[in-house]
Amino acid sequence: MTAIFSDELDLRITRTVKAPREMVWRAWADPKQLEKWWCPKPWRAEVQGFDLRPGGAFDTMMLGPNGEESGGRGVFLDVVERERIVFSSLMMAGWRPAPSPELPMTVVITMADEGGGTLYDAHVMHADRDGRDRHESFGFFDGWNTGVDQLEAIAIALQGGKG
């Protein structure tokens, strides 16, 4: 299945991560590693559900330094090892409809070899322009780019056997 992307409705970050794709995949696929990079510090993430297969749960809680909380629940729609992860907040585990997600979106993460690193693409699709603009106003580019920086650091550490 090929997603249809829209410049008007979607947000996207494409970066070269300075670590091999296998290590980037490990940083994504291991919930303990994901907790280390998922949200910008000083926030931290707790993975409460992570069943990396189509129909499996994706449930994280981001915790702020002043007691703030921001949950992110959804379902994995598609998983191709070391290549693609697709998840959505519109459904929950087992394809159950989600009860009014705060930020309805579907995310397509792709990874490909690029030199000695990984071409990492995070494409976030929204139902309408309002949702896209709201997500951008939450600090999408700063937050997600910081997350990719942290992902890169974890993947490099895994490569060196420090994960």
Description:
This protein is α+β, with helices and mostly antiparallel strands and 163 residues long. The chain is 28% helix and 37% strand. It has 4 helices and 9 strands. It has helices at 21-29, 31-37, 129-137, 140-159; strands spanning 10-17, 44-50, 57-63, 69-80, 84-88, 91-92, 96-97, 106-114, 117-125. A 7-stranded antiparallel sheet has the order 1-9-8-5-4-3-2. The longest helix has 20 residues, at 140-159. The N and C termini lie far apart (34 Å). The model has no long low-confidence stretch (mean pLDDT 94).
Secondary-structure blueprint:
Blueprint (H helix, E strand, L loop, with lengths): L9 E8 L3 H9 L1 H7 L6 E7 L6 E7 L5 E12 L3 E5 L2 E2 L3 E2 L8 E9 L2 E9 L3 H9 L2 H20 L4
Antiparallel strand pairs: 1-9, 2-3, 3-4, 4-5, 5-8, 6-7, 8-9
Short description:
Helices cover 28% and strands 37% of the residues. The protein is α+β, with helices and mostly antiparallel strands.
Give, in order, the helices and strands: EHHEEEEEEEEHH
Spatial order of strands in the largest sheet:
1-9-8-5-4-3-2
Helical percentage = 25-40%
Largest sheet: 7 strands, antiparallel
- Structural class by sheet pairing and helices: alpha+beta
Rg, rounded, reads 15 Å
**Content of β-strand:** 35-45%
Total DSSP helices: 4
Mean pLDDT: 94
**Amino- and carboxy-terminal Cα gap:** 34 Å
The backbone outline, from C-alpha atoms, is globular
What are the segments in which pLDDT stays under 50 over at least 5 consecutive residues?
none
How many DSSP-defined strands? 9
